[in-house]
Amino acid sequence: FAVIECAGFHENEARRRVYRARFSSVTETDILKAMDNLCEPNRNEALSVDARQEIDLKVGVAFTRYQTSYFQGKYGNLDSRVISYGPCQTPTLGFCVQRHLQITTFKPEKFWVLHPYIIHNGYELLLEWERDKLFDQDVAKMFQKLVLEDGMLEVIEISEKQETKGRPSGLNTVNLLKVASSALGIGPQMAMQLAERLYTQGFISYPRTESTAYPSSFNFHGTLSAQANNPVWGSYIQTLLAEGYHRPRSGTDAGDHPPITPMKSATESMLGNDCWRLYQYVCQHFIGTVSPDCKYIRTRVEFSVGGEFFHCIGQNVTVKGFTSVMPWSAVNEKNLPQFTKGEKIEVSKVELYEGNTVPPDYLSESELISLMEKNGIGTDASISVHINNICERNYVQVKDNRKLVPTALGITLIRGYQCIDPDLCLPDIRSFIEQQIRLIAKGQADHSCVVHHVLEQFKQKYNYFVKQIENMDALFEAQFSPLADTGCTLSKCGKCLRYMKYISTQPSRLYCRTCEEVYYLPQKGTIKLYKELSCPLDNFELLIFSMHGPEGKSFSLCPYCYNNHPIEGIDTFGSASKTGSSLKLGKGAGMPCFLCLHPTCRHSLIAQGVCACPECSGTLVLDPVSAPKWRLYCNKCECLVLLPQGAHRIATTRERCPECDSTIIQVDFNKKSTPLEDGSTLHIGCILCDELLHSLVEVKHGKSFSNRRGTRGRGMGRGRYRAKGHGTGKTVDPKMSFRDF
């Protein structure tokens, strides 16, 4: 419907009818079939999606903005970049914290179990007690004494039963994500990315589906035949086709797409490791759905001794069926010796096993997905996103075996919601919203009425939450350290001339205890004092920020200018980054020295800018602390230029090249490696026009560049030519970002 609206077709609805194609795999057969069976788009389904988006966005933004602004800057050891809330995300976190609280409040109890052993026809068997376990040691010892005094077991019952382990039904998204996490060790977000890649390459059908039932028209023979020559399972499929395949078990038809199915054969060398493992499971699952059931004989032998009853169980597979291709689902075989009813057997020993009850383990991703599906949290398309969000927000951490362990921040948030309004972190409200959205999709509820009703509910909850926020803050105070008690002394404040504290935990920042001001810094790098130099605009001491890695940029900045843009009319660091830089800016990204146009400061763009960037509209600036591996970097993009290596000193001058208007640089070469013919070490020239210097520079992460006359202007425009292919319009952020975060 977005396409219909943008194309303007809705204006001529009376004369023009619009159709859509529905297909579930990118194969010639499916595409042609879809084009031959076009249908009209369903406005109710589109409106239901719009309702979900509008509710989630407005509710999430309102709570997230308030929480983040309230707690940001209050606590030093709190990762408060974004303290987010989401109608799906928060109940998902609630499941993890609920399990954590069950673990921490669990009190273990001792229990005792009787373990009698017998030796019969060469087998030593441990028998299972019908009472399972007892929590009273004296009573358990009494039963042990009774068994020992009797000493002879009597076989009182032998039963054999043919059991069947049914083949699986079709594979939907939720089950794929659960298996990927529990069996393959691939997280839900990565699993969906791999599945989408396999889909777009035509190897599997559409991976976002809630259905486990195949349509009656599904071509099983054709799908199996496509895999008949696969080197891994081809021989099994050939046998299956020859002997006859079975129709899959009936599953759930959600009315969206068929179950996830392989569409063409592939090998590991074609797909790569992780893609292959996911594709292999999809293929094995599909083959399993059309294979025979697994059949086995279950034998149960019951015994009596000293008035107590015990048993043992044996299992023998008669038909492997689908477990031949899905071995992880195989029945564990256990052979028993031959017994006769009424037979007497001597007890070889009786152990009294002492154990402790154990708490449940932390939720695995697979278990969390099951809980989300059961409680209606998220859809097949969004479950992986919600789990990924609580990990990225540092609310939970993924530990061994894909277990989700909540952090102090995640636990404190949920406890805060529970003491203010438990509904905010319980799945009930979300389940109600999803029910209403399903009614919209069916045309049984009005879109605007549902959205208005839900938003009014959350508006009342938001107002109450704001009034009671101090209850949550009390929990934060108990868990996190105040800003004044955190960090280490680093640089002087330009206002009070007292030292400020550097807080390295995310988001990294400076805190002046005297002025009670917070100054945010660039993220994901190291911060150092820059030779105790001061900014000429505000007297704050300058800092050097260095990005991680051998090719990471280093640049100077004034904490005050970085948070309070002092010069109008030029880009901020934040807007400069939109052209492709991967810098982690932090809140309030304003003006580092490489964007400053101060006419006399030795660290500004005027002094350190050298020439135009060959890749974008930025300027190449001298890295002030890159010696002995001197280099220039672009103040907007990733372009990096390596200058003569091993030089003793490289500096900019106030002279400009008469040919291209670039800044003339001064290079003091090392005596032992100077390229100058007369053995001198000092050389002055333009890196674009001077043949010696130009031959010694190397461009990395950008296009090669050469002398371009007339491309560089003066003042604020210096260095601002555009490489071929770049537009001249204003850069637009493609994302809907919230800069205050």
Automatic annotation (TrEMBL):
Domain (Topo IA-type catalytic) ranges: 42-462
Basic and acidic residues: bias regions: 732-741
Catalyzed reaction equations: ATP-independent breakage of single-stranded DNA, followed by passage and rejoining
GO molecular function: DNA binding; DNA topoisomerase type I (single strand cut, ATP-independent) activity
Keyword vocabulary terms for this entry: DNA-binding, Isomerase, Topoisomerase
Gene3D superfamilies hit by this protein: Topoisomerase I, domain 2, Topoisomerase I, domain 3, Topoisomerase I, domain 4
Domain of life: Eukaryota
Record PROSITE patterns: TOPO_IA_1, TOPO_IA_2
Residues making up the signal peptide according to the UniProt record: none
This protein's record includes keyword DNA-binding: yes
EC number: 5.6.2.1
Listed InterPro entries: Topo_IA, Topo_IA_2, Topo_IA_AS, Topo_IA_cen, Topo_IA_cen_sub1, Topo_IA_cen_sub2, Topo_IA_cen_sub3, Topo_IA_core_domain
Presence of the UniProt keyword DNA-binding in the record: yes
Region (Disordered): 705-741
SMART domains, sorted: TOP1Ac, TOP1Bc
Family designation: Belongs to the type IA topoisomerase family.
PANTHER family: DNA TOPOISOMERASE 3-BETA-1 (PTHR11390:SF20), PROKARYOTIC DNA TOPOISOMERASE (PTHR11390)
Name of the protein in question: DNA topoisomerase
